[in-house]
Design brief:
Layout (H helix, E strand, L loop, with lengths): L5 H11 L4 H12 L3 E4 L4 H13 L4 E6 L5 H13 L3 E6 L4 H7 L4 H4 L1 H17 L4 E3 L16 E4 L4 E4 L7 H10 L55
Parallel strand pairs: 1-2, 1-4, 2-3, 4-6
Antiparallel strand pairs: 5-6
The chain binds iron/sulfur cluster.
């Protein structure tokens, strides 16, 4: 892994704050390809970025963390995305099957200890996905949650020692959906059924009109993040 200079990235972060998403994606791919990948859970922001990177640099790397708990609608979207875009999709999974995890810890671990479940099914595969990378691109937006309010467009991810690029940091949900419509980007049909944020099936519920966008994630569990984007990461969300 390339050692990334903190001061240099902070300087770029300030300079790039006023740049458009496509300019940032273009710069990032020029600068770091092939040691850069888009982290994609196939949410609305992620499919926007798939569309952008496939147009800017066909064949770019995209990775997803398959927890074995995806909705069928998410699998259907992945199929449509693969058919439409020339991307190099990498799928990372946990070393443990769901059966092995439940045998070792507890049945329905996502209910009894969602942090441990996320650690096994998301964080562990993420470490494999980030191995060898210098930079990663995410679909984080500042208004998704208070924990994401300080997201920079380019920042140093001190947890993983990588450059983290968040081209949509200042986008609103309206901008995301306008881009999807204008560019005819495939999206998860669950978004049309009051699921603004889609993760694993056991931990994702639809929200009521006016509710916070991420209310449907880990509802009633006092948990708002899976640990991929920790709020206690200095300089991060
Ligand atoms: S979101 Fe839920 S099911 Fe998915 S890894 Fe985390 S706790 Fe497990």
């Amino acid at each position: 892994m390339t050692v990334v200079a903190k001061e240099e990235i902070e300087g770029i972060g300030v300079e790039f704050e006023s740049k458009k998403a496509q300019e940032i994606v273009n710069w990032a791919l020029e600068e770091y390809d092939p040691n850069i990948a888009l982290s994609c859970s196939f949410g609305a922001e992620d499919v926007v970025l798939v569309d952008m990177i496939a147009k800017i640099r066909p064949g770019s790397r995209v990775f997803t963390l398959d927890t074995d708990f995806f909705f069928p609608e998410t699998h259907d979207l992945i199929k449509r995305i693969k058919e439409k875009y020339p991307i190099a999709l990498e799928v990372y999974t946990s070393d443990m099957t769901i059966e092995e995890m439940e045998k070792k810890y507890a049945k329905e671990l996502y209910s009894t200890d969602p942090d441990l479940c996320c650690q096994i099914r998301k964080l562990q595969p993420l470490q494999k996905a980030l191995s060898g990378l210098t930079a990663w691109i995410t679909g984080l937006r500042r208004d998704q949650a208070p924990t994401r309010a300080n997201t920079k467009k380019v920042e140093l991810d001190s947890k993983f020692g990588l450059v983290k690029i968040n081209p949509l940091a200042d986008w609103s949900p309206d901008q995301v959906w306008a881009y999807i419509r204008e560019n005819k980007v495939p999206y998860n049909v669950l978004h049309d059924q009051n699921y603004p944020s889609i993760g694993c099936a056991p931990c994702t519920k639809p929200v009521k009109p006016g509710e916070d966008l991420r209310t449907g994630r880990w509802a009633g569990k006092g948990k708002t993040e899976c640990g991929l984007h920790p709020a206690d990461n200095p300089g991060k969300k």
